[in-house]
Design brief:
- By secondary structure, this protein is mostly beta strands.
- It has no helices and 10 strands.
- The chain has strands spanning 7-12, 28-32, 36-39, 43-52, 55-62, 66-71, 74-79, 82-89, 98-102, 107-111.
- Strands 1-2-3-4-5-8-9-10 form an 8-stranded antiparallel β-barrel. Strands 6-7 form a two-stranded antiparallel ribbon.
- A hairpin with a 3-residue loop joins β2 and β3.
- The protein starts with 6 loop residues before the first strand and ends with a strand.
Length: 113
């Protein structure tokens, strides 16, 4: 991955809270080398970036693994891991890269550093 995408991103237009997994508070997402990221909202996780003719896509995976719970005396494993895939927008290669969250409401993470 090019170093241009590594760094610190802040979310913009996060006030619309009816979108399930999008952060509805100010958040800072840090993309680190070795495909690691961290954020107060999502915690620590991994990301994967792919490039194609359709553009640049990013998948973020986060969570703590498995939780064991007891239901009717049966042990059940439940995954705490979640992920989502979106794309990175950089209009005409100008301006800061944006990790899009919800395009219609103009919600995204914008690179600041």
């Amino acid at each position: 991955m090019g170093k241009t995408l590594l760094g610190k991103y802040v979310n913009r237009n996060f006030e619309n809270d009816f979108i399930g997994t999008n952060p509805h508070v100010a958040d800072t997402l840090i993309l680190k080398k070795d495909n690691q990221f961290e954020s107060p909202y999502y915690g620590k996780g991994k990301y994967n970036i792919t490039y194609s003719l359709d553009g640049t896509k990013i998948e973020l995976s986060y969570g703590e693994g498995q939780t064991n719970i007891n239901i009717n005396e049966n042990q059940i494993n439940i995954s705490n891991e979640e992920s989502f895939e979106t794309y990175i927008n950089r209009i005409w290669f100008l301006g800061n890269p944006r990790i899009m969250l919800f395009e219609d409401l103009d919600q995204y993470y914008e690179k600041i550093d």
